[in-house]
Design brief:
The chain contains 2 helices and 2 strands; from the N terminus they run ββαα. By secondary structure, the chain is of the alpha+beta class. The radius of gyration is 17 Å and the shape is extended.
Length: about 80
C-alpha cells in the first residue's frame, strides 16, 4: 500500500518491561506525528500470518485464495479466532 509519496518512520515504545517497535508510513514527520496520535483510536483487524515476497507475483494471490478456501471449509470449532485480543 505504500507509494513513493510515503516514507517509513520508526516508532518505539515500551510495554511489559521490553522495548517494541512499529513501522509507520507517512508523508512527513508532521504527518507521522498526527498518525501516531490517532493510534489510540485504532482497532485490531486480524493477525498477519504470512508475508510473501512480491517477486513471486501472481503466485501470492493463488496461495492466499487456496489458504482462505481451506480456512473457510473448516468447521467453526476448528477455525482459529483472529479477533478479540
Amino acid at each position: 500500500m505504500r507509494d513513493r509519496e510515503h516514507r517509513t518512520f520508526l516508532i518505539r515504545y515500551t510495554y511489559g518491561g521490553a522495548e517494541w517497535g512499529l513501522e509507520l508510513p507517512a508523508r512527513s514527520l508532521e504527518d507521522a506525528k498526527a498518525r501516531l496520535e490517532r493510534l489510540s483510536y485504532a482497532t485490531i483487524d486480524g493477525e498477519l500470518v504470512l508475508t510473501l515476497p512480491a517477486a513471486i507475483g501472481p503466485l501470492a494471490a493463488v496461495i492466499a485464495k487456496i489458504r482462505n478456501a481451506l480456512q473457510a471449509a473448516l468447521p467453526p470449532k476448528r477455525r482459529r479466532a483472529r479477533r478479540g485480543y
